[in-house]
Amino acid sequence: MYIEFLGTGTSQGVPVVACDCKVCQSENLKDKRLRSSLSVRVDGLNLLIDAGPDFRQQMLRVGQKRLDAILLTHEHTDHIFGLDDIRAFNWVQGHPTDIYAEERVQKVLRRVFDYVFEEVKYPGIPQMNLHPVENAPFSIQSIRIIPIRGFHHRLPVFGYRIGSLAYLTDINSVPDEEKQKLNDLDVLVVNALRMEKHISHFNLDEALQLIAEVKPKRAYLTHISHLMGLHADVETLLPENVHLAYDGLSLEL
């Protein structure tokens, strides 16, 4: 399995528009963060977790030529608003893109992208095959996917486990029964928004507490805001097996 962090930033990205803080003005490329998304290549399949407003830029940057499916964690703008650009893959591959999301998220897609689902379709619109996700394992061809329920304040969201990788973003709590799905991980990716506590995201301490509890071999923090601090400074505060992810970071599991 090969994974690449296409984006590691929060909903505003980093730098934030009109912000003069030291993080937003940093020249370190690891402090430049597009909206969060992860590419997963496994057994010949190219999967993507979330497709936010930077989707087009991310696809061009990595030179992606094929996309087999997109897994959506939830319906917020920074996780779905790039879906219009799947049309390029539709044209190249000659078929709709498979989108996996729970029913509530699908309802939002049908509203936001209503032109995709019109009975009489405008030529050239993106094509989506929507597949329901419930809190039970499912497969995309030969790949087994295990949804992991978490909560984004009061909003239920899904993380996903694929083999020895688990990806959790936009959460501030995980029920105990769901944590059982995080046993024996090689890599855990989990959101850590900032140092201070937040109403709907783990802060750094809370993310580290989850990591210490489930004990993955390695952990990477994502969905990071400019309020976290400089990448180089925060790295010095982390346990040996925990790192801030950054855009373009790739790992082979």
UniProtKB/TrEMBL annotation:
Pfam families reported in the protein's UniProt record: Lactamase_B_2
InterPro entries reported in the protein's UniProt record: Metallo-B-lactamas (IPR001279), RibonucZ/Hydroxyglut_hydro (IPR036866)
Metallo-beta-lactamase domain segment(s): 34-223
Name of the protein in its database record: Phosphoribosyl 1,2-cyclic phosphate phosphodiesterase
